[in-house]
Design a protein that fits this description.
Number of domains: 1
CATH topology: Porin
Number of strands: 15
Largest sheet: 12 strands, antiparallel, barrel
Distance between the termini: 37 Å
Strand content: over 45%
Strand order of the largest sheet: 1-3-4-7-8-9-10-11-12-13-14-15
CATH superfamily: monomeric porin ompg
Number of helices: 3
Shape: globular
Oligomer: single chain
């Protein structure tokens, strides 16, 4: 992406990142300024990898996970560049249950075609969800959770989905020694196609994470969506990787990339985010 194009997206698009950047900076400062009890567990986030954490945020804890993401895709003589702000808000109603609100936030897309360039901006759909932590690692060597989400047709333009789309995901995590871990997440999605017809598809993601120290950790991952969708949608496969830095128990910064492995998947996604727990 050219420098002047980036500047146009960031500074001229009033609905997008300027206010978000200030919000992220303020949240990070609050987390840094806050006092922490000795022995407090480090924050456990559902980003930046696709596989969700099997842990919940804890009783009466609030956690914000937000980011800025850039996606590029080129096929059939067209190329698109999309900026978004994926955000997840989690609240623990008990030690094993949490409420969730998720969205891709404000989006801006630039599409280059033979006929010329077009731009579109709008909000992504909102999703409401529940996570239930089923079992700790200490009990069975596997930490497990179930997630139920409902995507609402609340967005703008072509980002607005058709009808309500429920999904169910199962997460299992296992330690691979002192510093490494493995996570897997199968799931089912009841989605709609361009004809507004419902169809059932599956998703599957597997990740390996490694802790370099108490403050630094990384991961690599393979993820697939729209499995078994037939003529409704093409399967999307990606290879993902990222790093996370945890300077305080309640604060995490991260970077992530996704590389498309199938023709229907976006060619490249880059993102950076911050997560704060109160």
């Amino acid at each position: 992406m050219k420098r002047d194009a980036v500047a146009e997206l960031v500074w001229e698009e009033k609905r997008y990142p300027c206010g978000l950047v200030l919000l992220l900076a303020g949240a990070a400062l609050l987390a840094c300024a806050r006092g922490h009890a000795d022995g407090l567990d480090a924050i456990s986030t559902d980003r930046p990898d696709t596989v969700e954490s099997s842990l919940t945020v804890g009783r009466h804890r609030l956690q914000l996970e937000t980011s800025v993401a850039y996606e590029h895709d080129a096929q059939d003589g067209e190329s698109s560049d999309t900026w978004s702000a994926p955000t997840l808000l989690r609240y623990g109603v008990s030690d094993s249950w949490e409420l969730r609100i998720e969205t891709d936030g404000p989006l801006h897309e630039r599409l280059d075609r033979a006929a010329g360039e077009t731009n579109a901006s709008g909000m992504g759909d909102l999703a409401l969800g529940l996570k239930h932590h089923l079992r700790d690692r200490e009990d069975s060597q596997w930490s497990r959770a179930l997630l139920l989400h409902l995507d609402l047709p609340s967005g703008d333009g072509h980002w607005k989905g058709h009808k309500h789309r429920p999904s169910l995901r199962y997460v299992a995590e296992h330690d691979l020694g002192e510093n490494a871990g493995f996570g897997i997440m199968p799931g089912l999605v009841y989605n709609t196609d361009d004809s507004r017809d419902y169809y059932l598809s599956a998703l599957l993601a597997a990740t390996v994470g490694y802790s370099f120290s108490e403050q630094w950790r990384g991961f690599v991952e393979l993820a697939s969506t729209e499995l078994g969708a037939g003529h409704h949608a093409d399967t999307q496969n990606t290879f993902d990787g990222g790093l996370a830095w945890i300077p305080r128990p309640d604060l995490q910064f991260d970077v992530v990339f996704n590389l498309g492995l199938s023709e229907s998947a976006p060619d490249l996604m880059l993102g950076t985010g911050v997560s704060v727990r109160w």
